[in-house]
Amino acid sequence: MTFKFKNAYIENTSLIAGYYEKLSPYAKYFDKIYEKDFYFKEKSLEQAETKLLSESIDLLLKKSKKTKDEIDVIIAGDLLNQITSSSYAILNKNIPFLGVYSACATSNESIIIASAMIDTKHIGNAICSTSSHNLTSEKQFRNPIEYGGLKPKTATFTATGGASILITSKKTDIKIESGTIGKIMDLGVKDANNMGAVMAPAAADTIARHLFDLGRDINYYDLILTGDLGIFGKEILKEFIKKDYNIILDSRYDDCGAMLYNLEKQKEITAGGSGPVCAPLINYGFVYQMLKKKHFKKVLLVTTGALFSPTFLYQKNNILSIAHAISLEVVEK
Amino acid sequence: MTFKFKNAYIENTSLIAGYYEKLSPYAKYFDKIYEKDFYFKEKSLEQAETKLLSESIDLLLKKSKKTKDEIDVIIAGDLLNQITSSSYAILNKNIPFLGVYSACATSNESIIIASAMIDTKHIGNAICSTSSHNLTSEKQFRNPIEYGGLKPKTATFTATGGASILITSKKTDIKIESGTIGKIMDLGVKDANNMGAVMAPAAADTIARHLFDLGRDINYYDLILTGDLGIFGKEILKEFIKKDYNIILDSRYDDCGAMLYNLEKQKEITAGGSGPVCAPLINYGFVYQMLKKKHFKKVLLVTTGALFSPTFLYQKNNILSIAHAISLEVVEK
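ok -> structure tokens follow
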């Protein structure tokens, strides 16, 4: 299901990152970096994650010269059970709130809903927010790493950060041109340390349906980015989408998870970044700035989510996945 | 934030219930009741919940004489961590999927998003689904009940069921007239066995803003129902909304949680029903049928969600709440 939006534009973005993200080749596009630890002066890791999401909203308002009262709705979600970082972060904003969940595909889901609502003209703007935190995810989804425990090379590293984007009906220089809502996929993978393999088929399906729905060739886009497949998942996608859909992803394609860290220096991060904030740390920073400079003019951003439930995995179920796509375009004057 | 929808109508609904719900005064409006146990022939309770949600979609398609291919999008959420009942239930439907989470306010959130998307004319229809299961919730949110353990009188009982509704742009006899997106509230409550007290202020705020946004008096509606405040929460709301907003809720007001069970006979259910499926078990059954018979013509349905995170509660945070409202109206010919 692909929407072509009429009136949805990006007004501004904000990015708060943690200290592993400081070494990112794209760190200069972050607004703020917490360099010291994983607590950011909060009492718990979960409250630390909440702080990242909350600060990203406050900063976005400041950058956009807007007050809370001028925002019509916030749409947000995160990985914590009951999307709790989002709800506690948004509590004090006093802005109507819709909670969403697509795991690491959450940012695009929220942008699609916001853009559709703006197209109805019932609302004039919306903030979309998400967060993730390496250690809250480790606590919740995986076992704590024991001394001597090693992760396999295919494991990705959940990024730490908070990200927000302000979508508006007021024309700006970057348009949210379209959005494709993904379907849930199950390729039979049960390995929680190989999320790239889980999510690649969902990305392939969504890219193929996006192109089909709009009658476009992949070469329509200057840049195609998936969310957090990582260095192995990225190659799986390229192979899979060529074989099953006859789509060639050339050098215009990359993956935010593969891009986010400096894998040469950061040896502990094996297959790249992941988490709901991984894609926004590239998309709302580097990609947004490159669009503003017209370095790119048409980009396709495909966020990828592993709908991973520890309970269902313990019960021998496969890990499901989903991918949602949006396209951004420079508005020609 | 209140939307007045132009083109969103109810085409049909479906309700699957568990065996505690068999004794409901409103059970005759359910499409199917599982009478025997909590497993429904599945291997785990979580898979049993998934079955309820999945069957409600299949039954809705059958009742509406539609195939899966004719559905543009499914919007769903539930209480299980990572809204897993929804994603596993929808996996085999092969329909684009948006996951949402507002705890027990989820049904109205999904209807508001679906109705807005239908108003853009990008989609022609959407299924909104939710589920809850008494024992999966007990497992996940509260401690198992030990022998001799008693719940306080204010505790509600999570309803077991799956519920779906088909929203369409094609004119039917019942219109989704408006929707109000709620704000997150915190009234300082930490008692997980008194969710009615947690959620009543959110319901009051949303009802008041709904009336204000649309310039309406509460007497505009023939029927006002909250989602799952229960018998104590319902009284708290009446008192609170009178005192803080000068709104009088008279005999036209009731609460789905207070209505759902036969509290005279079902002594183990103390304060009434709750859970995301509690409100739909009344709204998509009894209310929908009464609207079709024009017994009611204008109804305001306010689903109420406690954004309850065990992790955040253990860390001494309060329980947050939210309420989303929709109004339904009989279409006069």
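The two ends of chain B are 29 Å apart (CA to CA).
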